[in-house]
Design brief:
This protein has twelve helices and 19 strands. It has 341 residues and is α+β, with helices and mostly antiparallel strands. Helix 5 packs across helix 11, helix 7 packs across helix 8 and helix 7 runs antiparallel to helix 9. The structure holds adenosine-5'-triphosphate (ATP) and magnesium ion.
Length: 341
């Protein structure tokens, strides 16, 4: 059977495969996020109704992984961006986006400090490793065709949010916002494992005020997990249970709800203090900046705590997707066609 023209045409995606969530931005405006959640091994669950399946199996480099509603292996280890764990989660995100069987052209990201050396040089080896990893095949273990990444390049994560900020799409029109382009702007990206800082001035990255802090919402999760374990004298605390506790301030154990809002509040405040100190260290009071733009899912989760850090701060629209949107715009409007060929 001949593949139809639609499946032959590569589809462009912004692919922000973070430590906490994998976000996909599509040219038709759709934004999709799945938790970066998987582990090695079979799912050990048989689904009575396939429509209700919540755990999916994938194989890459001869290793089988379960992705979806599993108690996940932590993603916050050094090699995660080039790992099989990362690759199966990305494949699952593409499958969930409806891209089974499609050829993908993607821009992805790395934290600022993984992308640049302190002196501002690109860490080519790290960048190429990540591109190579994403292009390796992943086989869904159900009756679905894999999505195949044929082209991928990587840009610094927070810089992607800057592209999103300066490339403006209105209805069917795309334009560079000259005013935004001409002024110095800082981006603060509060993520799961890292918080990224980027200052862009005259279309260049100011390395003295840019970098990554190892700290994000996954630290809050860890703190809450430890607290629940101690308070209820548990040997193990499931990862999904902790996620729910952080989001809702409640933990359900043996059929009974317990309020853990205070524990969550303490964990958030601890992170916020570290973020605040690092933000002041990187940006000072931001007097020479025109704007400080907050992005990342952590911005959403900590919105009350970061409300008054700068008089000229702004929270991006759907902040968790700012990087993914910027990656897509970079691919659509900045990448040369010869790069993508
Ligand atoms: N819609 C939301 N509501 C509440 N909290 C959210 C939301 N989206 C994300 N978060 C929180 O923000 C955290 C960080 O999300 P984000 O997607 O920015 O992380 P990430 O990009 O995967 O991490 P990193 O940038 O370190 O790789 C999540 O762990 C979650 O706690
Ligand atoms: Mg991120």
């Amino acid at each position: 059977m001949m593949p139809d023209a639609n499946t032959m045409t590569p589809i462009q995606v912004g692919l922000d495969d973070g430590y906490a969530f994998t976000k996909v931005a599509l040219p038709d405006g759709r934004l999709i996020a799945i938790p970066s959640r998987a582990r090695v091994g079979k799912s050990s669950v048989t689904w009575i109704d396939d429509g209700q399946q919540r755990i999916f199996e994938y194989e890459t480099e001869g290793t089988l992984y379960s992705v979806g509603a599993v108690d996940a292996a932590p993603t916050h280890f050094e090699g995660y961006p080039n790992s099989g764990l990362n690759r199966v989660i990305v494949q699952h995100a593409l499958q969930e986006t409806g891209l089974a069987g499609r050829t993908i052209h993607a821009i992805s990201g790395l934290p600022v400090s993984a992308f640049y050396n302190k002196n501002g040089e690109q860490r080519r080896e790290t960048i190429e490793k990540k591109c190579h990893s994403l292009k390796q095949g992943v086989q869904p273990k159900m009756e679905r065709l894999p999505a195949e990444i044929a082209f991928v390049d990587v840009i610094p994560e927070a810089l992607a949010a800057w592209y999103d900020y300066v490339i403006v799409t209105k209805e069917d029109e795309v334009m560079l916002d000259e005013q935004r382009l001409s002024v110095p702007v800082a981006i603060v990206d509060i993520g799961g494992r890292t918080t990224d800082f980027v200052v862009v001035k005259d279309q260049g990255v100011i390395h003295t005020s840019s970098g990554s802090l190892q700290g994000g919402m996954l630290d809050v999760k860890q703190h809450v997990a430890n607290g629940i374990q101690a308070r209820f004298d548990l040997e193990n605390v499931g990862e999904q249970l902790v996620t729910y506790a952080v989001e809702c301030g409640v933990v359900r154990l043996q059929g009974k709800d317990h309020n853990v809002a205070e524990l969550v509040g303490t964990a958030k405040r601890e992170l916020v203090e570290r973020l605040y100190a690092e933000t002041r260290r990187q940006l000072g009071l931001g007097v020479e900046l025109d704007r400080v733009l907050f992005v990342g899912g952590g911005t959403f989760a900590l919105v009350e705590h970061i409300a008054d850090w700068f008089p000229h701060q702004v929270i991006a629209e759907h902040p968790a997707f700012a990087n993914a949107r910027g990656m897509l715009k970079y691919l659509q409007y900045v990448c040369e066609e010869s790069d993508v060929a």
